[in-house]
Amino acid sequence: MSDPVRVVVTGLGCISALGHNVGELWWALESGTSGIAPISRVPHDQVHITIAAEVKHYDEARHFDAREVLAYDRYTQFALLAANEAITDAGIDFWRNETLACETAVIVGSGVGGWDTIDRTFYSLHKSGKSRVAPLTIPRLMASAATSQISVKFGLKGPAFSVSSACASSNHAIGEAYWMIRTGRARAAVVGGSEAEISVASQLAWESLRVLASDTCRPFSLGRKGMVIGEGAGMLVLERFDDASKRGARIYCEIAGYGLSADAGDMVRPDVGGAARAIRQALETSRLSPEDIDYVNAHGTGTTLNDMTEVQAIKMVFGPAAWRVMVSSTKSMHGHALGAASAIEAVATIKAIEQRVVPPTANYLGPDPDCDLDHVPNVARQMRIGAALSNSLAFGGLNAVVAFKAV
What we know:
This protein has helices spanning 22-31, 60-63, 66-71, 74-90, 98-102, 115-126, 137-141, 145-154, 169-182, 200-208, 241-246, 272-286, 304-318, 331-334, 341-355, and strands at residues 7-16, 37-38, 51-52, 104-109, 160-163, 188-195, 232-240, 253-262, 295-297, 326-328, 357-358, 381-382, 387-394, 398-405.
């Protein structure tokens, strides 16, 4: 029996509330700097919660020409920018390698796709009184728009599709790309997620669920009040280890395994058993034990129930090792970017492995009795990370966990 195909990460790209590239993201994470601030895209007199983790100082005209601006929703723009950074970082020119381009998958996760286009269209019809909409409205708002535009922009002709599983969308995308390369369905992949949902309607909808914090996001902390909506995109380039080694690529880490499960329960109330099954499966597929894991980039939304449930799931799977592993939530800094969250968190986890630094849980006030693991409060920690998990536990009980390890 031949050895299994190893899948490695050779390119990273990101745009988020912490900056417009991976370097800016990592500087903020390492220093514990939060990107949560008063909302600029929403009039404060129309909502009750007036904070969010927006991509700041963003001017689409600096990145795209007028024709492209007409064609790209904000979420597609973010996806294209992150994909461009990741592909450039990987050092691959797909236009010059037709064979590889035909064997490279594009998979993008998003919870809602072109929300900004939908929101603006309804505003123009029902508030501004217009009787027609822009001709490219449908191609802009499709949940698969970012996938299509990345394939067009970079000449990628392999398997291409989008994933929508709420907050787990990006981890599902990364995991499926990993399996496609492992099983020979693809040779490489450009994969991740993007989201741009901050608007009056969206903010009011989240407020109605009573899960938003009015002060800041403080996962696992005493006094936490909820999540803070974010936006942005994270993208990875995945390759077979042998291909990356042969061309002398920089290898950030290896994707070691992937677990997924459904709670089959409540749409908004997380289930300990469902989360534990996904974590356990990620360990089993990666042939790692709880003792091998040094760091967990937690789903950690900052809501009372979600954080407590995730801690219980980690204890259920890890046993005594749960109190040894470091468990932090970077949502405390870049906010909850919904369908893009686990893509941004994947970038954070990979950089943590590369830089040997565990990003902290920011805004931490003190230990909560229900969250009594090592949550790396407020200050990053220098530490070699041999292996790490990135958890994503989504609304609807859709769970996805990706395991990464140093090469």
